[in-house]
Design goal:
It contains five helices and seven strands; from the N terminus they run H-H-E-E-E-E-E-E-E-H-H-H. With 175 residues, the chain is an alpha+beta fold. The chain has two domains: 133 residues, Pleckstrin-homology domain (PH domain)/Phosphotyrosine-binding domain (PTB) (PH-domain like); 32 residues, no CATH class. A seven-stranded antiparallel β-sheet has the order 4-3-2-1-7-6-5.
């Protein structure tokens, strides 16, 4: 393992340590070890863990479902460790709203050019933490950061080539 990969793994593990105490598990405790194994491989170098919850993801209405998974929110995307639902880039999120849940917490995420995503979590406080993270303003970006973000949206199919070109011209004019 390279030094850079080892440093990345250590950073992700320390971020996991920080959220571990707040996580209420429904499933077996050994499953949490899977997070330590999978997340360093899943997260990119510039991606940071914001929250993790034991729960499920479901595309609405009647779409793909990832039941009994860990729901992970980073500074770049929302995803479940179960591959049933595609990761949602945060740039594509239009709105987030809490919904009533019988137990735990839940919220609905509306996204550009995609079905809504229903997130159910075993712990209501983790759901509130994720909603708050969505509502916090993004850090200031340079035009080059914004261009990179738009490129990821285009590559993910959220923006058309025409929409990308229009925004690109607008951003380059600001340089």
């Amino acid at each position: 393992m390279s030094r850079q990969a080892w440093t990345h793994r250590q950073r992700v593990e320390s971020e996991l340590d920080a959220v571990r105490g707040r996580l209420r598990l429904r499933g077996p405790r050994f499953a949490f070890r899977e997070l330590y194994r999978l997340l360093p491989e899943t997260l990119e170098e510039d991606e940071h863990l914001l929250a993790v919850g034991d729960g499920s993801l479901e595309e609405q209405p009647h779409g793909n479902r990832a039941p009994g998974t860990y729901v992970v929110l980073t500074n770049r995307k929302l995803f479940g460790l179960d591959p049933g639902v595609q990761p949602l880039p945060l740039e594509a999120v239009r709105s987030v709203a809490a919904v009533e849940a019988r137990d735990g917490g839940a919220f609905r995420v509306s996204a550009l050019q995609r079905r809504d995503l229903l997130v159910r979590l075993a712990d209501a406080s983790i759901a509130e933490e994720m909603i708050a993270a969505f509502e916090s303003p993004p850090p200031e970006q340079t035009p080059l950061d914004a261009l990179e973000r738009l490129g990821r949206l285009r590559d993910a199919g959220v923006l058309s080539k025409k929409e990308f070109q229009a925004k690109k011209a607008e951003l380059l004019a600001r340089l």
